[in-house]
Amino acid sequence: MSQTKENFYIGNTQLWTLLASTIWPTIIGYGGGIMAREVSRDMWLGGILAILTTFVLIFVLVYTGKKFPGQTIVEYSHGLVGKIPAKVLGLVLVAHFLLGALQSIAIYVHHINDFLLTETPFIVITVVYVIVVCYLVWHGPEVIARIGVIAFIMASVFSVFVFVASLQEINLYRVLPLFDNGFPAVVKASLTADSFIGYNVMALSMLLPLAANQKKVGRSAALGLFIGGIIFVCYLVVELMVMGPHVTAQMRVACMDLVRSIQITTYLHRFESFMLALWYWSMLVQAGILAYCAALAAQQTLGMSGIKKLSNAAPIALGILLISLTYLTARNRVVFLNFIEHGWKEISLPVAYGLPLLLALISLVRKPQTNQQQQKKGRR
User: Fold this and answer.
1) The pTM is what?
2) Using CA atoms, how far apart are residues 332 and 341, in angstroms rounded to an integer?
3) Structural domain for 41, as ranges
4) Which whole-number Å values give the CA distances from 307 to 90, 105, 171, in the listed order?
């Protein structure tokens, strides 16, 4: 579907599969190693705690969004905090979604460049992949949501293969005893997991007006979080039971080292290319929907609120920006990993969890303004 259509609609099944397929892929990419370095064998407990706190985020987003039917978080923020603060908030959200898309693109390009196409220049893989992402952005959220259904199926197949191939290597004692490093360390690891989950769930604040069944949108979002959370927590557990916490903590990309170390029988081994093909769909959907949210938030911040489609120039500008940022920030793996491990949490958590909570609190004390009231106020 092209961008000639004025309004998009996402089915509630598509909505929960979209969330489920975007929550897990980046956290197993770099998050597993980071969490293992923070909390060792208890990293999966940090993942569970992160899921519980993200349920609160979904409740806040749906609660506030339903007070402003048909509006994204960028649009209804004007009625809550005023024009100028809303512009600042909009720019912050644009940067946040853009960084999320950048992170997703960079992690996938690293996997392809470091493990499969090692002789291919980094910039070539980046350009090709970003073109595909921007092509999805041009087609809009309906198409991305449909691919999300495929991504969810591929994620399920991915998880089954990893579990079956790991059965002969699993050692339950590698995840015991529980809370070996204490509860505060688990909380710290959960914040790391939140930093990987939050920006994906924040996409709900831009997609909420597009849900076909508004009454069930909260249930659909919670289901997507629950299933996506099960996928990545199970993967963290398998990493621990196969490689152990100390080996996992030494890995830059623990998920690929796990996949490369397992095999199915004596005939099917070194099947990381096949696993990457399954993982690719979720990464593509994640990068596509976050890039779309960034572009839509930018248009609405610039005064084009109410428009649910993007201009034809938006994907082109977005592609040039993403290629440039990915090349500048992610070409050096060490610098990129240091940013993800030591800087991203401080950026992601205040935006993904702090801003929605702030707007929800303001909506409790201020009477929401309708679109007509905001337009009349603007004419004055």
Assistant:
1) 0.90
2) 14
3) 12-373
4) 15, 27, 53
